[in-house]
Amino acid sequence: MRLERDVAPRDRYGRELAHVWGGARRVNEALALEGWAVLCTVPPNVKYAERLERAQKQARAAGAGWWESGGFACAPSAYRRVPLTKEPGAPPPAAPAADQ
């Protein structure tokens, strides 16, 4: 495994940002293409953003990985903005409207 850095080595939370390579294979892209990863770009680190977006779209269209059962009720980034429920076992809250 090899890590390839982009512009910024860490995000605002101090997490390491890198593209992961396994030999000649870009692991990030392979996971997206197989439907097991969701695109999350952190500007200015956008070197492979278009390729990763294409891979995610292909996986979704093919019903691969998580997309086999219809994908997500809402995108993980939208879900994180929804207040948590206090009731154990309650269904997840609805996603916020797209225009918010």
Describe the structure.
This protein has 100 residues and is of the alpha+beta class. It has helices spanning 27-33, 49-62, 76-79, and strands spanning 2-4, 19-22, 25-26. Strands 1-2-3 form a 3-stranded antiparallel sheet. Strand 2 and strand 3 form a beta hairpin. The radius of gyration is 16 Å and the shape is globular.
Mean pLDDT: 84
Mind telling me which CATH architecture this is? Beta Barrel
Rg over CA atoms, rounded to whole Å, is 16 Å
> Can you tell me the overall shape?
globular
CATH class: Mainly Beta
Relative helix content: 25-40%
Uncertain regions spanning at least 5 consecutive residues = none
Largest sheet: 3 strands, antiparallel
Strand % is 5-15%
Count helical runs: 3
From the 3D structure, determine the CATH topology: OB fold (Dihydrolipoamide Acetyltransferase, E2P)
**Distance between the amino and carboxyl termini:** 40 Å
Number of strands: 3
Main β-sheet, spatial strand arrangement? 1-2-3
Number of domains: 1
Order of helices and strands: EEEHHH
- SS-based structural class? alpha+beta
